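Justification of computing resources. Each target in the renewal requires a structure prediction run like the one illustrated here; the chain below, 327 residues long, is used simply to show the kind of job we budget for.
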Amino acid sequence: MASQPLLSIIITSYTTERINDIYELLDSIKAQAYPNIETIFVAERTQELIDRIGDYANRQRIPNLKLLFNDGEPGLSAARNVGVGEARGDIIAFIDDDVVLLPDWAEEIVKAYTDDSVIGVTGPASPLWEDESMSWFPEELYWIISCTAWCDWKETTEVRNAWGMNMSFRREAFEKAGNFIPRFGLCNSSRAKWADPPSEDVDLSLRAKSKTGKRIIYSPDAAVRHRVYAHRIKQRFVMQRAYSVGYQRRMIKRLYPDIKDGDRLLNQEHRLLKRILGRLFPDILKNLFVNPVIAWRKSWVTFTALTFVALGYYSHLLPNFKRKQAV
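Resulting structure tokens:
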């Protein structure tokens, strides 16, 4: 790999409601210490996104930005595939449209690929709360808000899969394993069903590792901050997200039956459950009389999340359980 390989960063978005988040993200890309970057922005549903992003990029002199519109099959995976088709980089990264990159993010991503055994790199996402009063939310449940403190890894660690809000792969991964499967991942602007399709990031990660024989690693220094809006810690969102994650984990085992010990695929979920039982619950009990309001909030959200993960995971055993529709 060249000493300063081109890093292609792909961003997708479908709504102007996040326009300010996208502006902030573009500013954080411009501020990266690593110089050899191209940014590919793929819009869906509204041409206004292209127009406004293009105007902002011109005013702020955002370098090496390519604007694309996905007028084909809709959805996150399809839009990311459009970006992959236009990317020129040796390393292709994907970030959500509501994250902010730390200044050395790109440098740390590229540095991780100096190890030839690495096919993919992912990193931490810390919450950028809409309001600091939301910070009571338990770290063990940060997977609900697409953040990562639940994993508690301080060193570079080999992982099962990269996480879609902060992930990257060598171009080799797409050459050997193919692109994202369009029917996987979110396919529209809202979660139409509680049982979402299988996770596109998990699926591509497992295919890339299988086809290349290489590893995916978590780099604690390749960090982003992920915006968390208030509705994401409300009861309905927690129920829906937890059910969906449980359902998706069952789908992983169905998609990869050739891995004989299927439970190995869920090792990180098992470790997290042990942390919830061994650390979070005792912490709640300890603070029950010190700060009862926070203790109550943590207890209800934890019981709700665990209950709906289980419902999602075992939904195939409950034929009469009606999968609710999101409002």
